[in-house]
Amino acid sequence: MSSFSAGTFSVEQLEVFVGPTSVVRLDELSVRPGEIVALVGPGGAGKTLLLRGIAGLQPTTGQVWLGERPLHDRRPHERVRDGLGFVPQHGIELPDLIVEEVLDLPAALGGRRRRMRFGRGGSPRPGAPWSMYDLCEYLPGLERVVEADLQSVGAWERLAVSIALALRSGPQVVLLDEPAAGLGDVSIERLRASLRRVAATGVALVVATRNLALARTLADQTRAVQGGRVTPFTVGEQVR
Amino acid sequence: MRWVDLVIEALLRAPTLALLALAFGVGQRFGARCELWGGAAAAVAAVGAGWLSSATGLGPVANAAAVVPLVFGAAYLLGVFVTTRPEIAGDPTRMFTASSLLAVAAVAVTVLWRGDDPVAATGGGNLRELFGGPSVSVDSAVDAAVASAAILALGALVTLSRFRVRLVVMDRAPELLVRAGHDARQVSALFGAVTASAAGLAGVLAARHGALTPTAAVALTVVGAETALLGGLGSIPGAIGAAVVLSLLGTLGDEVRQGWGGLAVHAVVLVVLFARQGHVGRWSTPRWEAAR
Q1: Global confidence as pTM
Q2: Which of A57, A94, A169 is the closest to B180 by Cβ?
């Protein structure tokens, strides 16, 4: 049983494997509700694999806890239901679907559809599915593409849809893999503001990025991912 | 009038091919992401049951066997979506066991319900009789064809209206389903159920068309696969269209000279496949091109 308090997200002795090979190891990480942690490192350092391992999409050993709930023996979709959202690097690109249809996917899980669709919200909180109203409030630009074809939306909107899909499931923690990749300066600023607002609701964020400026201005704590290890890191140090 | 009769006969055979094609196509495109040949196996099993129907002289009993995949499919569906207990719904082995028990129970109840006549209980493809509706005087082949078309249409409507988004996502980005909290294996099982149902119904219909031999069973399976390839794997309109075309071709070809029908069907499929730049099984439409 984890020694952390309820709501704290923690990872202990996590080792991520590709086939039989251990490629990245994280000894300890704990993230309080509303806290933002940046995992910085160059491309190929293992950030993506680390996040996928935490999300259950990659074989791992070690422990992942959300409060007192163990996630490490849960399957990926069960982790999502337990409150662990995941936003991969590449946004959603699916022809023949409109944004709203994708954002309704989590609603199809149970009798939450009505509440999720019509609830005005206004006070999103960790563990509760976000309403469309709240999503549009916290992710500017999303409201313009709700009825658009997924293929026709821009890079920021595509990322916003991806983040919105994670929030729609009512997460307590969201893992974001290189959210700033492919975004211009204006969109990165928008991303920073949006993530700060989301974190302010109590949702913890773990952001993997190679963008040091984003890490410096966004994160409450920073770790470096290099050579298959995750180490404490103070922004300002050089990450090669 | 002779030609009109032939066309009608061909159209009555078409649902069998359409269902087989769907069993192949749906199985390959969706449910068989983890079990690639599941659809083919279900179709072979159903056609095998149809063959058993005439080859062993136990026709109606074997027809009952062909109904089982249909019942199994429905029970499987029930097992997946009605069972909310995650320890069952998330585990294919337990789900399989639970669904099989449901299927066996459903058949047993049906047989008991019809009492002394288990053959009548399954109706040999006459679904109205199976479910205790009013007795019908129309030809049983027409009856079965109409019933299958109705079931196919109903299934397509329900599937498209209720599961369309999940179907598209499952097909093209299954990880997205997981990110939305869905069990991709469970969605996959839906297509297993559709596959088993389609194959089971095809087996019932195939058994209605008279003598089936082991060779015929193999040939039907091959033609079913060809129909799927011609119509586009997983495409319901494609399966129906291709089934009508190939049924007409087969029936009319046999009218010209016995055996020419089958030959013509295989020949057309070969020509179409090679004409599409060698992309076997990839029937291109603008929509599908865009999907890639």
Answers
A1: 0.65
A2: A169
